[in-house]
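Need a sequence for this fold. Nothing fancy.
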């Protein structure tokens, strides 16, 4: 009897449990495949966490704007209307959805299928990509902040930098190689269109943000959220804003994405054929807070797996001396700069050290 009590009151050695989990190289999917019926302690959100879902009401009366890009290159009247709608959405929500964006639905389905194929592979094949070295051409792991976050998130991730220096084709996983290369080029084209619209929304020339190299870098992230036996105890992706200029997200039909709007969590339900676009921290800073990089999260679910493909326009963690600051042409005595200049690497290093703790990394660079 004494032995049983000792076992039950054994101190929680979180670092050891995190290390043991990481060393399996099997991710959350490996836990689910093993048949677990309880969420391991490393994933359980503390009672005082902002992501304890049971304490946060969800607002079902609001929805982010949907913007039709049909005729963006042909109709000047429609184009001006798109500029106005994207500007308004970027100032008030920081999020919007786009339809008729030029990427075929068949390719959107195939990239999601490619993610499924990667994770459905035998674990021994997946393991060869498992690493915490962010300089590798393909980085597969669970939570970039696994060892620094307050609780692990219920998801596995594959990360690749697809521009300006993409991996060699043979370095990409065979399960998704062809569609990943094709889809990344399509997203780069869409990104250029969006940056032109966003530039004009700031009162700048169409190519202003492109000339500042906002569309030079593209990081693609496959997120895989396995079904969760106790979704009320954990979170798929904790409250955070994006360390990017702009993010374009493709989500499947399961849903779970929420955006924080006027201190309320608002669901972003799946819309067939649509892509979700959100302003990143760099663009909020460069627009001197005119555009908003808004916090969002992903709930866990009994259903699954939930699959999403996030495309981040960012220069990534590669060393560069280029400084980013509020755009000079927008500043005046009435609109003084609110941020100091910084390199993307400085920002990314701070973001990675801080982890997804619900606090905006932008605060660190406020003047």
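Here you go.
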């Amino acid at each position: 009897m004494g032995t049983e009590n000792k076992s039950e009151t054994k101190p929680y050695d979180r670092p050891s449990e995190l290390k043991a989990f990481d060393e399996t190289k099997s991710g959350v999917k490996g836990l689910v495949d093993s048949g677990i019926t309880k969420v391991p302690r490393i994933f359980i959100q503390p009672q005082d966490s902002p992501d304890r879902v049971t304490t946060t009401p969800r607002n079902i009366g609001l929805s982010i704007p949907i913007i039709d890009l049909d005729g963006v290159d042909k109709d000047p009247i429609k184009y001006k209307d798109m500029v106005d709608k994207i500007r308004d959405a970027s100032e008030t929500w920081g999020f919007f959805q786009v339809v008729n964006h030029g990427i075929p639905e068949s390719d959107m389905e195939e990239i999601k299928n490619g993610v499924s194929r990667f994770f459905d592979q035998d674990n021994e094949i997946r393991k060869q990509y498992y690493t915490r070295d962010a300089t590798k051409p393909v980085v597969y792991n669970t939570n970039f902040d696994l060892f620094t976050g307050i609780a692990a998130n219920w998801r596995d991730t594959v990360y690749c930098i697809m521009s300006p220096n993409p991996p060699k084709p043979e370095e990409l996983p065979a399960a998704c190689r062809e569609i990943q290369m094709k889809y990344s080029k399509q997203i780069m084209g869409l990104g250029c269109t969006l940056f032109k619209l966003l530039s004009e929304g700031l009162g700048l020339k169409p190519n202003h943000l492109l000339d500042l190299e906002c569309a030079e870098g593209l990081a693609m992230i496959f997120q895989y959220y396995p079904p969760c036996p106790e979704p009320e105890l954990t979170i798929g992706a904790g409250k955070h804003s994006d360390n990017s200029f702009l993010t374009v997200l493709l989500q499947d039909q399961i849903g779970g994405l929420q955006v924080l709007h006027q201190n309320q969590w608002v669901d972003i339900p799946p819309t067939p054929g649509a892509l979700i676009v959100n302003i990143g921290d760099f663009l909020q800073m460069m627009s001197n807070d005119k555009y908003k990089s808004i916090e969002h999260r992903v709930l866990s679910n009994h259903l699954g797996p939930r699959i999403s493909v996030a495309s981040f326009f960012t220069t990534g963690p590669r060393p560069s001396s280029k400084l980013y600051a509020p755009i000079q042409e927008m500043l005046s005595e009435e609109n003084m700069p609110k941020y100091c200049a910084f390199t993307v690497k400085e920002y990314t290093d701070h973001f990675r050290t801080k982890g997804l703790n619900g606090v905006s990394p932008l605060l660190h660079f406020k003047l």
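For context: The chain has a mean pLDDT of 91.
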